[in-house]
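User: Quick one: structure for sequence A, then sequence B.

Assistant: Sequence A:
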Amino acid sequence: MDGRAEGLVQRRRNVPTRDVYIEDEAAAEARLNGGQDLGGDNDHDSKETRLTLMEEVLLLGLKDKEGYTSFWNDCISSGLRGCILIELALRGRIELERAGMRRKGLLSRKVILKNADPCGDVLLDEALKHIKETDYPENIQTWIEYLSGETWNPLKLRYQLKNVRERLAKNLTEKGVLTTEKQNFLLFDMTTHPVTDGSIKNRLIKKVQDSVLAKWVNDPHRMDKRVVSLIFLAHASDVLENAFAPLNDDDYDVAMKRVRDLLDMDLEAESAKGGTNEIMWAVFTAFIK
């Protein structure tokens, strides 16, 4: 898989700064979280207004008015599959096999089923079904490739999750975040999903910004697992820059430096610390190796 740790995309200077947080934050928080906490390893399957990790990454990548991701972004497809695996892990459905006495590396260890109960989300349940029904356990790297359809083995193409972006956009439309339109692109028509409720996206952007600025704790294990995952997977999906674009130049530089500090960590060592979710760190490693 294409590693993306070589360098973060640097912004163009003289980008006009703007205050995108015009709605009362308490109201936006209520809409985003729906009064629920999906953090940590607890399993909450309501999908009323709470956004999943993959929905958050897609929302960061969508152009607000146009309603589609950049045509040049070839990273978000695999990034969303990584989000799905982390979401399953955070909901207690999958885990890595034990490292053993020889301390196998994260990418050498197999993904095993921990709990086969449905999550109540179609994409998550489809991925969970594939993991449950596979003949032999596979590692994280392989599962990202299978779910993305990036395999030379025709017998494994059945594991591909199809139309992921469109299905996530439909979820976000049902939650009132996006709307659905048809746009003509000269030779073809395309369904697009412009942002209809900017307050939720603004809140998401502010959450990402605050995690590396106002609420920076310089320790990923003291950060919410979902926020850490969002930073890593937004970077892997090449949409993290969108969250930092509204910042002034000084804050932008600080934010990017702190993201770089996270990306440069020894992921194997971090995964061995107490209270970690090893699937998370294995997914990070798959994209940053």
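Sequence B:
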Amino acid sequence: MRPKIVLFGDSITEESFGDGGWGASLADLLRRKADMVLRGYSGYNTRWALKVMERVFPAAGDGGAYPSAVTVFFGANDACLPERCSGFQHAVILGVNPRKSLQHVPLLEYKQNLRLIVSFLKNRWPRTVIILITPPPIDEEARLRYPYIENTIGLPERTNEAAGTYAKACVAVANECQIPAIDLWSKMQQIPNWQTECLWDGLHLSRVGNKVVFEEVTNTLKGEGIGAEDLVVDLPLIEDVDPKKPLTAFDDQDQNAVVTSSGPKISPILGLKETKPTPAAHSCRLSPMAPKTEDKNRAASDDTCARSYEELGFRL
């Protein structure tokens, strides 16, 4: 079975399949090796993401397949300043103050929402690799040039300082839950002229910005044992088809594994070669039961995620 990687996030994820997008680049890199599943929702924050988890990630009995990895990329909207211009152009019609951000989520709630999202995924799919991605940096001058609605107060609805605070919170949650994180806020600011090189409107990614995300996600997947070199193509390659007996290349094989031209089998879930040892990081995945480990700190952090999940009332 070809492994699946789910990209879950806001508009930066939704737009990732555009020309030069980081999601499209991942799909190209892993073509015939893994399927990219796009679950990006423009304007969403972690509060809204929690409300739709069951629909975005249905259980196996409801048609949901076991993903090899999930990227969770939220925070840019959570970090909107609460008393600045909103992204809702219809706010005035609905009688809502357009200068009050409907997307803002307080920092402590943002952290808890991330914990709940991670807990949901860990309990539903204990072996799935979960990668948190921080919000990108913000070019405040560009946000004034590209406002969502008429900006009468002359102040950007986002600031780089606020984005950085949420980025640090995102990394902190990843550390608590023993999962990898990509600190995009810091990575991008290492690039000269990042404001114009990485962003086109002060928030959304340019080609260079998309390349940064692509490389960071690719390297993180590789570190988790799901790199391009770890996966094998499904079905025979044209060079493996015997020209004298071409149909023999498509004979039924072991239902639980795929045999490549070089011989090794791959896992039916992760698509990983059996001969390659599973990275130690995978042992940290939560199961619905409390993990047995001598590391009290890890057990405490995992138990916190598990309790948060149960308190939310999600079903497995």
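The chain is about 35% helix and 10% strand. The first strand starts at residue 4 and ends at 9.

User: Thanks, that's what I needed.
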